[in-house]
Amino acid sequence: MDKVWLISLVTLKEGIRNRALQGILIIALFSCVAYLTVIPLFAFDTGKVAVDLGFASMTLAGLAIVIFLGIGLLTQDIHQRTVCMILSRPVSRTQYVVGKFLGLSGIVLIGVLIITFMGLLSSWAGIKYVSEMTLPRNFSWHVLGVGVLFNFLSLLIIMAIAFLFTVLTTNAYLSMLFTFGVYIIGQSLETIVKVVTAGEFVRVGALYTKILKALTWIFPNLRAFDLKVNIAYGLPLSLSYTSWTAVYGIFYIAIVIFLTATVFRYQEIK
Amino acid sequence: MISRKTIFSFFILGLIIAGLFFSNAHVKRYRANIPAENKRAEVLMVSPNLLKVISGEFKGLWADYLLLKASVFLGGYYEAVPEDWDAIYLMFKQSLTLDPYFFQTCYYTQGLFSWREGMHERAIELLKYPAKYRDWDWEPRFYIGFDYFYFLHNNLEGARYMGEAAKLPDAPPIVATLGARLAQREGKTETAIALLHLMYDRAKDEELKKILEGRIKAHSGILSLEQAIFAYKERYGKRPESLQALIDNGIIDRLPENPFGDTYLYDVKSGRVFFDEIQ
């Protein structure tokens, strides 16, 4: 376990050296400016607009870390054979994958926390100085906290998938493309299945519907982690829903990391 | 000692900056009279459901953008033609499909669509989205009830929605009163004035406030003329032939001011008064 922590710490430092946090800070500052300039254009439900903007910046920053930094660091290790240097020590390939994943998760967590803090700061300034700005209906710190945590969890799922594709293809561009594809599918598959099943707007064959439903067991349901509506409109959030969704996310990450480690174990590093 | 090469580089940089400022000033001059939005309302002609699929987790943000885009066009310099209203209707529908909870879209639907001839059913269709999702809010149901009653003359549906609105928390007592009036098929203009006052009190947008102020004034004018026509009928046993007859027979001193036209329009057959066109 010590080795895993050591690798994750080195990865975290490497990420910080890569100026990932500067990028996050720029996105956070941009979202602060957007808060104070875009929100006064709306008259009602301004708290909801703030939630939309804040979470959009969080997702964009997180995706940027996962897609560019995560995939970049891993392919760099493989192509520059830095990985051989690490694996020549008593470190297993599984420990390497898990360590890298935890280190990058740390960077994503720092990014999410920075953006949340800046978002809260600008919302506080907005409520104090911009007359149009109001708190969302039934605002709850607890629901906001769960929303941020779920956003972080969905980013970790994407990162785990990015790891799997990087190890499978060992090509940064292909991995980015496939990861982004899975992100899009994860965000839209549930809606597509609902629209197709309702049969109100689109009519498709039973086999096609079955295939789509089968895919929902393979691709991650990222929509389940989107709690923006609950935060923005003060809608109730059940403990059982949040618990099961969190468990689902953790298990999904575990399976993908297990697959990544397995593929990596049998891969020949040239 | 500054080298010749450095001086030359600064000279070239100065020329480029001057050229940039000069050309930008010309571009600004040419574009000064072009409104923020295009002359005609533009909308992405895709089904709202497809938009929901492709917008993923940014659907809330996209809904905000669509509403802003429609508002910018409506607040622009140009008079909207029927095709524009079709485009704006689709934008509102897309926005409400992406975020059916957003109150601003609901409010603008009532403020802008419901009052347009030929758009009443569409306004109700749009308002049914927030009415379904905002199950704590009396306003969307109240708007639907009003539209059924006032524009579609469907008192039964109007009273049903008003009744549903009155049961919700925070609904002002006037909602129940108006619902009862609807059920009795009376007080159409008073109901319109009451709704407009409710909307005016909530309005934050100065442009919309001005429109609502005009409508309140116009409906107040209609109400006073309707009362005068009623008084004329009481006195002479028939409706006046024109609004001028009300002045000639001493019922009123002068016609009230119509903020949307020269004068009010009067339909002798039905005895109804309109501020824009006879319906």
Short description:
Helix content of chain A is 78%, strand content 0%.
Description of the molecule:
The complex is a heterodimer of chains A (270) and B (279). Chain A is mainly alpha-helical. Chain A has one domain. In chain A, 78% of the residues lie in helices and 0% in strands. Chain B has a domain at 222-274. A two-stranded antiparallel ribbon of chain B has the order 1-2. In chain B, helix 2 packs across helix 4. Chain B is extended and about 105 Å long.
The geometry of chain B reads as extended
Mean pLDDT of chain B: 82
Radius of gyration of chain A, whole Å:
20 Å
Strand content of chain B: under 5%
Number of strands of chain B: 2
Shape verdict of chain A? globular
Largest sheet of chain A: none
Distance, first to last CA of chain A: 27 Å
Helicity range of chain B: 55-70%
End-to-end gap of chain B: 85 Å
The biggest beta sheet of chain B reads:
2 strands, antiparallel
Number of DSSP strand runs of chain A: 0
Helix share, percent of chain A: over 70%
> Greatest interface and its residue counts?
A-B, 29 and 22 residues
Outline the low-pLDDT stretches of chain A.
none
